[in-house]
Design a protein that fits this description.
Length: about 170
Amino acid sequence: MPRVGVITQNIDDLHRAAGSSDVVELHGNWRHYKCLGGHTGFTRADFADQTDLPPRCPRCGALLRPDVVWFGEMLPAEALERAFAESSAGDAMLVVGTSGPVQPAASLPLHAHRAGSPVIEVNPHRSDITPLADVFLQGPAGQVLPRVVDELAVITGDERGNPLLQ
């Protein structure tokens, strides 16, 4: 059974909602909160009883904000380091639905390529990633990815039909 890791710039937590368990969120997660005093790891339940808007940190009283990367902010170092490590260590990289100009995420396929991993791009249109891709599958992800999953099931002999969500 292949191990599948997801590296995403999305902040919506939909990868986990869809069943992915190994997710690197480069831009954070809107369901998590941090305070301006440096405390992290809060969820809405941690301050649900507060009436203050914006809410305050349960530890120090500083203002809370979504734990996402806003324009001009640095990506979380731990997430970025893990994304580069995963990109360099994988057997293949599947790049889905990006135009490819946003750095440093746009350089992850290059790291995979340099490590000898094939880069497979799924996109309705060619992107900045396409010249680097070993395979370009043109079309919407919702149409192309189910076919990829079916082909992987055949290749891996997984009769359950969905190796990516196991």
